[in-house]
Amino acid sequence: MITHIQGKLTEKNPTHVVIDCNGVGYQLNISLHTFSQIPEGENLKLFTHLQIKEDSHTLYGFSSLSEREIFRLLISVSGIGASIARTMLSSLTPKQIREGIASGDVHLIQSVKGIGVKTAQRVILDLKDKILKIYDIDEVSVSKGNTNKDEALSALEVLGFGKKQAERVVDKIMIAQPDANVETIIKEALKNL
């Protein structure tokens, strides 16, 4: 198993990089999250996951061990392949995915292109206990994080905004500012509604 590759960065694209390691160029498929973490410069180390199929050997590269761990957890779910897992890591940060699964946030997981309600529910059902155990997350602290979102949504509904429209806007705010308090969420939502 190839656990990481370190060498000279010879090609950098939003979907893949090529790392020259002692004269051999390795192409690694990456997420947008990893792409944004790659520093400018020649020397690069990425943690890897090697996927072997009948017709191909594909390397996936990750900027951190936690991102690779989330990727491996995601592909262990029936119906989630490497490309969907990579899309999830491109749309959301590993921390957002981890917290979304731990808190049972179906809407967050479903916001990723290519994931429907049933697949999002399956991801949460299959991985919630593993995420809580691996990352030692207390369910109480996770549900507390979602309270700000719930309070902001109910306040926006009282102000006369539609639930679905308000939820879309609040979800975008929560992705951009995961630690935002209720007032900040409401102020930002009012600017976008």
- The strand count comes to 5
Strand order of the largest sheet: 1-2-3-5-4
Please identify the structural class as seen in this structure. Answer: alpha+beta
Rg, nearest Å: 19 Å
Give the terminus-to-terminus CA distance: 50 Å
Give the overall form: elongated
| H/E element sequence | EEEHEEHHHHHHHH
What's the architecture of the largest domain in CATH terms? Orthogonal Bundle
CATH class of the largest domain: Mainly Alpha
Domain module tally? 3
Major sheet size, sense and barrel closure:
5 strands, mixed, barrel
Beta strand %: 15-25%
CATH third-level topology of the largest domain: DNA polymerase, domain 1
Q: What's the rounded overall pLDDT mean?
A: 86
Give the helix tally: 9
Unreliable sequence segments: 140-145
Subcellular location: Cytoplasm
Protein name: Holliday junction branch migration complex subunit RuvA
InterPro entries: DNA_helicase_Holl-junc_RuvA_I, Hlx-hairpin-Hlx_DNA-bd_motif, NA-bd_OB-fold, RuvA, RuvA_2-like, RuvA_C, RuvA_C_sf
Family: Belongs to the RuvA family.
Polypeptide structure, described:
A 5-stranded mixed beta barrel has the order 1-2-3-5-4. The relative contact order is 0.09. By secondary structure, the chain is α+β, with helices and mostly antiparallel strands. It is elongated, with a radius of gyration of 19 Å. Strand 2 and strand 3 form a beta hairpin. It has helices at residues 32-37, 65-75, 82-91, 94-103, 106-110, 117-134, 139-158, 163-176, 182-192, and strands at residues 4-12, 16-21, 24-29, 43-52, 57-62. 54% of the residues lie in helices and 19% in strands. The chain starts with a strand and ends with a helix.
